[in-house]
Amino acid sequence: MFETLSRGFRQARNRLAGLTELTEQNIDSALREVRLSLLEADVEMGVVKAFLSRVKEKALGRTLEVKVKHAGETHEVSASDHFIKICHDELEAMMSHEGEEIAWAQSGPTGIMVVGLQGSGKTTSCAKLARLLQEKEGKKPLLVAADMQRPAAVEQLKVLGDQLKVPVFNIPGASPVEICAAAREQARKQGRDVIIYDTAGRLAIDEPLMKELSDIKAKTKPENIFLVVDAMIGQDAVKTARSFHERLELSGVVITKLDGDARGGAALSIKEVTGAPVLFSGVGETTDKFEPFRADGMASRILGMGDVVGLMQDFEQVVDQKKAEKDAARMLQGEFTLDDFLEQVRMIQKMGSLKDLVDKLPIGNMFPGGLPQDVNLDDRELVRIQAIIQSMTAFEKNDPYALIREPKRVERISKGSGSKPEAVTELVQKFLFMRQMMSGLGQNMGMLGKIPGMK
Ligand code: GDP
């Protein structure tokens, strides 16, 4: 399941491996892989386009490898990890829904009308839903057998109802509309609090079917209308969903046979195309193989990279809060090197500005007149700073004063990094100034009391 999709994302990730920055060019080349696999997996064309453009927009300019602690180990978060996380979030947004799967009635039994084409798994899904509600929600469902189109459907529902000890209501010889209309009274008599209507299926959508379903909807006024679609039929499932939604205003979709070798495109496209979210998925023939559709889990499965996603989630939480505070505290103690400086400049960059960072600590107003404006660096400058620092030897990083004492070193670094010698000198001076300023500030703070992360 989802192998076609996962392959595309894996290849995209491979294309970005080892890169430190997401640029228009490398994003485009990664997205080409993703595009192919989305189309191959039967994702609707418009959905593919929208997804690619959203990922591209978010990915542009994201840089790289920050170290994070995850499950006790230190990991590098690379450009490709960023890319995958952005894909994950976009996939999740495409499939997610708000609120509970089921809208409950304010008073009286809750109605769930289940519709779908023949063979989609509608009758099975009615029974699965009854089981889920009975076991997980403590509800007392009543199943209504109103699929008079498929000869065996009524019998099939009765067999399943018997297995689950859920009553099944039917009136032999009556029309589906009559049966559904009578079900509420039956539910009251039997003390049932949810009514699940298994309605007629057809091989294809036609007017008599839609008319019958509209009539049942008008008579029973169900709180929920669920469409059952078969994941195996790919884009046709999306078309089916669109037609049903236009006519009946679906509250959600149940996607079945996700356990098979369906390519998964339908699961990705349905909400984007129709506006009706997928709420449940069928993952096997037996009645226990049914679960609420979780967009987050589905996105991770599609990417086939659970760890990266978890890591990035940690990254966002840890880096933005604890790590930034700890690093800031370290800066305040004057205990940092040019490598730290580089890392912290990236952090500051991520957080907006050094001023914002300091504002997050209880010392924000300790700077008379605020921070120097030029500590707010733009992306190009960040890349330049990185190149300069990386051109330094370990000795120079350890003793930046060497660069002021020996201009030859500055020239070498200037050549190596492609920056002017003045830019190198300026960077060193800025670094030394910051270190001194932070250290002085830290000492003052030490006298005043606690700073998060400081000893
Ligand atoms: P209906 O005509 O829409 O009522 O379809 P049925 O409920 O009779 O299901 C059609 C076939 O699909 C049956 O053989 C079911 O066992 C099978 N089926 C339904 N849901 C699933 C599912 O989630 N996974 C698998 N593998 N088979 C399913």
From TrEMBL:
KW Ribonucleoprotein (keyword) present: yes
Reactions the enzyme catalyzes: GTP + H2O = GDP + phosphate + H(+)
CC terms in the record's Gene Ontology section: signal recognition particle
Stretches assigned to the AAA+ ATPase domain: 108-252
Tagged with keyword Chloroplast: no
Listed EC numbers: 3.6.5.4
SRP54-type proteins GTP-binding domain span: 109-304
Record domain Signal recognition particle SRP54 helical bundle: where: 1-95
Alphabetical UniProt keywords: GTP-binding, Hydrolase, Nucleotide-binding, Ribonucleoprotein, RNA-binding, Signal recognition particle
Molecular function in Gene Ontology: 7S RNA binding; GTP binding; GTPase activity
GO biological process entries: SRP-dependent cotranslational protein targeting to membrane
Enzyme class: hydrolase
Family in the record: Belongs to the GTP-binding SRP family. SRP54 subfamily.
Name under which the protein is recorded: signal-recognition-particle GTPase
Species this protein is from: Chondromyces apiculatus DSM 436
